[in-house]
Structure formats: structure tokens, C-alpha cells
Design brief:
By secondary structure, the protein is of the alpha/beta class. 27% of the residues lie in helices and 19% in strands.
Length: 183
């Protein structure tokens, strides 16, 4: 959070429009923090978007476009990976923004799979509010176990690895490799 993901998405989509490319933008219907029908950055830059309840709706709503933008991809279902690949295979440039990890430091929704299948990945980082280093963790400081909790500075803060594990007092997530799990 607070790394400029949405800002970068808006910048890229506006450049595409400037280049006379047709653009459509989608966001999850649950994201109503700033505006129901706009993608809005923390710096108040905005672009009109279409809210959709599920990723399967996106291909049904895409007209004859050159570029599709998708914001807050982590809130979509896993079908988004197939949808993005389907659009890309049709020759449509797909630009996706979203968090790759949740507040527990675990892979978030379809983002890791989208990053793995993307031609290009730009990973942006916030600044740690404790020490000023690059932050790649979103620390939730209000007590709530729900994975999805829409919030801003009232609920989350960006932290670097060292500060996150010092403050969160959580061990690093343990992942089993496929080689180990096959034994």
C-alpha cells in the first residue's frame, strides 16, 4: 500500500489514451473507498472505471479496445488470471495493479499468478514509516482477522521487512516447495 500502484496505472492508461489507443478500465465492485465508478489514487488522480462483481464479467464488457486496465486485482477471484491471458491472447494490452501480499505477508489472491505469467512486471515500493527504507509489507495495526479489510492510513502502514517482523512479531511465512511436498 502507498507505493503508487494506482498512480502508475492511471499514468499508463492516460498515456495510452494520449497515443489514441482505446482504453477500458475495471475495478472490483467492493472497492468504493473514493468513488464507485472511478479509480482514484492517494494523490487524488482519477480515471473513470467500470466496477465489476467478478473477473468473468470483464471479457463480456470489453469492446473493441487496445488496452484494458485493472485496479486492485488482489480483490478479484482467481479467474482473473485466465481473463487477463485471454485478453492478451486477443492482442489487447492488459495493465494490472494490485498488492502481491496481504497484511500477513502472504501471497494475495491472483496477483502472484498474474506476475508469473506477465510479460512485464513493475514492482513499486512504499517507504517504511518507521525507518525510511523501501517498504514491501502492509502492516495492519487494527485488530481484525479478516483478510480483506478496505482501509487507508487509518488501518495500514507500509513497513520494510525488518520493521514489519519486529512490529508484527510474526515469523516469516513458511512455504513448502513442490519437491518437498511430493515426498
Amino acid at each position: 500500500m502507498f507505493s503508487g500502484k494506482t498512480e502508475e496505472l492511471i499514468r499508463r492508461l492516460k498515456r495510452a489514451r494520449f497515443a489514441k489507443q482505446s482504453v477500458e478500465i475495471f475495478k472490483p465492485q467492493i472497492d468504493t473507498r473514493y468513488d464507485e465508478e472511478k479509480v482514484v489514487s492517494h494523490d487524488a488522480n482519477e480515471i473513470h472505471s467500470t466496477p465489476v462483481p467478478a473477473s468473468a464479467n470483464i471479457p463480456l464488457m470489453v469492446g473493441n479496445v487496445d488496452v484494458v486496465g485493472i485496479d486492485e486485482a488482489q480483490f478479484f477471484d482467481m479467474e482473473l488470471v485466465h481473463v487477463c491471458n485471454q485478453l492478451a491472447n486477443m492482442g489487447i494490452r492488459v495493465i494490472v495493479a494490485g498488492l502481491d501480499m496481504d497484511y500477513r505477508g502472504e501471497p494475495f489472491g491472483p496477483m502472484p499468478y498474474l506476475m508469473a505469467t506477465a510479460e512485464y512486471v513493475t514492482k513499486v515500493h512504499a517507504i517504511c514509516v518507521k525507518c525510511g527504507n523501501l517498504a514491501n509489507y502492509s502492516h495492519r495495526f487494527i485488530p481484525d482477522e479478516k483478510r480483506v479489510l478496505l482501509g487507508e492510513t487509518d488501518s495500514y502502514e507500509p513497513l520494510c521487512r525488518k520493521c514489519y517482523f519486529k512490529i508484527a512479531k510474526q515469523p516469516l511465512p513458511k512455504y513448502q516447495s513442490s519437491a518437498n511436498s511430493a515426498k
